[in-house]
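Continuing the series of single-chain predictions for the mutant panel. This is the parent chain; the variants come on the following pages.
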Amino acid sequence: MPGAAGDRRMGYRTGEDDFTVCEKHLDRVSRTFAVNIRVLRGDAYRSMLLAYLLFRIADTIEDEPSLEAAAKIDYLAAYENLFPPGRDWRDKVDRFTASLAVRGNGAESELLFDTPRVFREFVKLPAEYISIISERVRETARGMASFQRKADGSGTVVLEDRRELERYCYYVAGTVGLMITSLFFGGSNAGRCVPENIYERLRARSVSFGLGLQMTNIVKDFQGDRERGWCYVPRSFFLDEGIDPRAGLREDSRAAEAVLNRLVDMALEYLDEAIEYVQTIPRRFVRYRLFCLWPLLMAVETLALVRRNRDQILQGTTVKIGRNDVRRIIMTSTCAVFSNHLVRWLYNGARRKADNAISK
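Parent structure:
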């Protein structure tokens, strides 16, 4: 059984319950989101943790270098059809897992082969949560498959323009923003409902919240993405600066730097909307505010780091903020979370770092 292999590799104790195993998967496949998911409690914690793993399973299929585009399309379609889980969900999940021909042996692959464990916990969630998560995971898997159809002869997926980049980011991250808003603030549970005007304001900025975080990931790991068969920088961005799209950003030139800054500016535009999203969350939902605020501030500081180290980025180095920076962000934002004025002050301070770095 694939799940048993996962137990052996990850060192699970015999009889360890499925949710404990899911928590271990979270720690292994995520650093940033493992931190902010753990600030949640109750059904919000369980649903967000499981939703993250379900989205990450789709990501793993999309990213798997041993699979051809056609195989990824088939697997993503099969994965999409697991949602929402019906009466025969066990058989369908087992068949899906048994069909996987993936050679990877890292944390993501272990999660992929532990899909049955994740589903055994997923189906225990309240029906409303299952419905919300299922809708968005299906949309993401379908969108990912549609982009795999764009793979060229070398297997690389190339995006054409900003509109296409935004559409891709919507499928992999904008859908997550919409899901978060529905899980936290929508539905019939009076404990998480907000006035309709507040809910609509949150929903209007949900996609930007997701896109800002996704664009930051694209910026900081551009060369690594190219090596696994993706070119997130649209072809038109290269052509606008007179760069051969096949060369990428390794060229040490002002043109390559202009392309990088254009990507950073896009990410900052979305994050500027995302901070409005956080400030719209009522103060009584303090844990939800922290859940959203922590990755947002980390993203802005990451973009500042990218600009300060743009020469290394253009040569293929990946940058990320350090653990001390993460701890500082968590401490300061936790103290400021009840005040929109202080939340904005923290964001503006991080934003200035990114703006000032461009001139250095």
